[in-house]
Sequence to fold (237 residues):
Amino acid sequence: MLEILYRDEHLIAIDKPAGLLVHRSDLDRHETRFAVQLLRDQIGRRVQPVHRLDKGTSGVLLFAFEADTTRRLGEAFERNEVGKRYRAVVRGWPPQSGRIDHALSRESDEAGAAARTLTTQPAITDYRRLATIELPFSVDRYPSSRYALVALEPLTGRRHQLRRHMKHIAHPIIGDATHGKGRHNRLFQAQFGCDRLLLACESLRFRHPVTGVPICIDAAPGDQFAELLRRFGWSAA
Fold:
């Protein structure tokens, strides 16, 4: 059963688990479980996703009940009027804080539709380092390996923006099979039993499209992510 974080007569938000697609995708044709259908079955009502989370990303996922509400919120996302905060575990120790201003080329969408153009789009992400750890495992050419917990706030909404931006500054997110480092991903699988992408949407902030009331929906990282935070002593970070 999906955990419902927020619900009113217009909106509903869930805590999406890692590994669950938002909707049917040509990129994962073998999948039979989708957040849209599971939520419809759970509450007995049709819902429309307002935004997207990658299959491997967990956290706050927002839906609307009516097409007009979906449209209004979709426009708010496009105008970057929705505050989004993510938490991630990355390789290495990035600076204490910073801004990544790096344009990104278009990518295929979650449904498998190819991008129509190779032009780039402006993309900006703010980050803040929350905690660090040095583990006694040799992965690269050093006798130990460093990792960090970071807070990420995308100021634009490009596909795979956070994963691509962290790779751009040489601090890829652990568990990212496409933009990350396989040796570090395998270390976390072997040593900590963690085989998921360590990226979670922990907060959405926006004005309600109908009432205008400020809304903030939060979700703490769960499952393997939460266990890893506990083992590293990062639960309070």
About this structure: Residues 3-231 form a domain with the Pseudouridine synthase fold (CATH 3.30.2350.10). The CA atoms of residues 141 and 183 lie 12 Å apart. Helices lie at 35-43, 67-78, 161-168, 182-192, 223-231. The first strand starts at residue 3 and ends at 7.
